């Protein structure tokens, strides 16, 4: 039996990759065993000297099936595998498995090249590195898996995001099945049926913690703030819950100082929270640009919780000044995580004499000051109106009498 792998590749402007893997049993009429169409991006955290940096790349138009690493699977020997290669040394591999009713992407592997200076400038390590993870991509047999929403796969220091995905393995024909299994992210909220997610389990307000990160050139981060994590996840009994976890002053912390990136890691045995502060050299502003959380949730279906976002722009102030906000702030990191910040004062990159610089207050605090001013002004106006009315009334009452 001769196995022939064939590729049908087309790219749109949105970089949506469409491909198929075919098997031909000795003739020219190959039958596709895997078909896929999706867009993808890869967020990779790597070491660059004494700092951590983040590389963000998108699946390029040059991607293609790597034939010698792809397979339609053999009976009791191997499972179907789709390997996609792109760039200089990058490989995305999906392996499939099935039971009597469902098939799934059992495992996803990603190999990236730290020697590629375009995406990994000043990387401390060189050469290829591979990370992997299981996935939640699954569908009914003979149905197409369809997901318009983001699909996030967390692999150690890499987050892979797929979107607008259409995938099917073990195809009954050489086309996508008309029937679909939609991902949970695309499902509308039911009006009847299972109960709605439980309300947040909120502990007492977190205590203020103080942080000081020092590098070779002195202090690069000074912070005083109370932090709280709001995490939404599915429990083992298939109910969705949102819980709040406080970051305690007793949690250990560390950090790194860099010319363009300052990091703060706070953690204990069950969780590590990393905050990344970036700087816009043109506008001379610093801001919270990245949040990454790795945590263990014993009562969750997936006990290992991991999420990140490196495109934030919160807690912003001029370099040399400090950002201050007494009001509670909510920073939405992902669908599963919100970071609540209380009583914050923070300064990154340039800190002199281990003291906060001039204060730049948040908009919320400014609005809070406007409220009593507006109320006071309204009361003063009301008093003035009453006084004028009283004087006018008194004048009219005197005008009604004549002197004899």
Automatic annotation (TrEMBL):
Family annotation (Pfam families): Lamp2-like_luminal (PF01299), Lamp2_2nd (PF21222)
Signal peptide interval: 1-18
InterPro entries the UniProt entry points to: Lamp2-like_luminal, Lamp2-like_TM, LAMP_CS, Lysosome-assoc_membr_glycop
Major location category of this protein: membrane
Record-annotated Lysosome-associated membrane glycoprotein 2-like luminal domain positions: 27-169, 206-352
Subcellular location: Cell membrane; Cytolytic granule membrane; Late endosome membrane; Lysosome membrane
Top-level taxon: Eukaryota
Span of domain Lysosome-associated membrane glycoprotein 2-like transmembrane: 371-402
Entry keyword Phosphoprotein: no
Region called Disordered, residue ranges: 177-209
Record carries keyword Transit peptide: no
Disulfide bonds: 33-72, 147-183, 325-362
Name listed for the protein in its UniProt record: Lysosome-associated membrane glycoprotein 1
Lineage: Eukaryota, Metazoa, Chordata, Craniata, Vertebrata
